[in-house]
């Protein structure tokens, strides 16, 4: 991982040799058992276009949500840089992936509402 500097919003760590980024949350929520079930579900998600959720740190002075670090940056970063040209194949794949994420999110929301 290239050198990253901690900020008020993000901290950078290594866990078992794997680079992580941790989002600093201002509030420390109170969790119910259903919240832990949902977090296990999110932790089990694996997809090339998602940064893997690694877990929460709520024992220390800061409440952190930890995610696998992506050295390529976010899609927003890549588009804003404007240095990359996107061909038709990339755009088609991007649209398909975004559509897939929308469908997964909709199904998950329906599941949470008890519609399944």
From TrEMBL:
Protein name per the record: Serine-threonine/tyrosine-protein kinase catalytic domain-containing protein
GO molecular function term, any single one: peptide receptor activity
InterPro entries: Cyclic_nucleotide_synthase (IPR050401), Kinase-like_dom_sf (IPR011009)
Gene Ontology cellular component list: plasma membrane
Organism placement in taxonomy: Eukaryota, Metazoa, Ecdysozoa, Nematoda, Chromadorea
GO term, biological process aspect, one: receptor guanylyl cyclase signaling pathway
Taxonomic superkingdom: Eukaryota
Record's keyword annotation contains Lyase: yes
Keyword annotations from UniProtKB, A to Z: Lyase, Nucleotide-binding
């Amino acid at each position: 991982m290239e050198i990253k500097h901690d900020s008020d919003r993000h901290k950078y760590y290594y866990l078992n040799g794997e680079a992580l980024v941790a989002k600093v949350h201002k509030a420390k929520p109170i969790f119910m058992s259903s919240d832990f079930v949902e977090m296990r579900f999110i932790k089990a998600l694996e997809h090339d276009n998602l940064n893997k959720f690694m877990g929460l740190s709520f024992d220390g002075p800061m409440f952190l949500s930890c995610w696998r670090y992506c050295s390529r940056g976010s899609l927003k970063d890549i588009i804003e840089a404007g240095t990359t040209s996107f061909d038709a194949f990339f755009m088609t794949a991007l649209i398909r992936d975004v559509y897939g994420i929308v469908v997964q999110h909709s199904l998950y929301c329906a599941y949470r509402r008890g519609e399944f």
